[in-house]
Please model this.
Amino acid sequence: MKEKPVVEKPFLTDVQELRRRARQHIEEGAVTEGYRANRDTVVKLLNEALATEIVCVLRYKRHYFMAQGIHADPIASEFLQHANEEQGHADQIAARIIQLGGSPNFNPDGLTMRSHSEYVEGQTLLEMIKEDLVAERIAIDSYSEMIRYVGENDTTTRRMLEGILAVEEEHANGLASFLADMDKDWKTRAR
Ligand SMILES: [Fe+2]
Ligand SMILES: [Fe+2]
Model:
């Protein structure tokens, strides 16, 4: 069998070229000519994610303050923890939008239109948990899609989104196990 000749690919553009490119358009901050994604689209997607996170903060805050009853303590503190983590996501996303030369949209007008998830108040603890689980599942789907879209073209954004996605999955898991526990409790009591 004939061996294929190994073609050495240069790992990086040569140093002189990298330096020259870095000096061009320095007003663009972190976005260099090597940026391969469509920046406008990424900023638009990130602004939708920002709106989603803000709506989630508001919904979890409402649920935290409304949570009452025998089951409420651990659940209320879970709501509060989620609210704080969603706030952290919103901050990360806003910072990335700035790095990409965009502007983060914090305008309350149209917030729920831009958001993927809904603001549902929920009348009982059970309804609140269910609505939060629905919202988390929406977030999981939309972050997964964004990660696939960004792919290899914007590694920093992708890594940030992957980190957020992992936390949304934890949130969904936590809520699902509360639902399962409540269901078990009621079945035991009904006997
Ligand atoms: Fe989040
Ligand atoms: Fe979440």
Notes: The chain is about 70% helix and 0% strand. The chain has a mean pLDDT of 88. The CA atoms of residues 97 and 186 lie 46 Å apart.
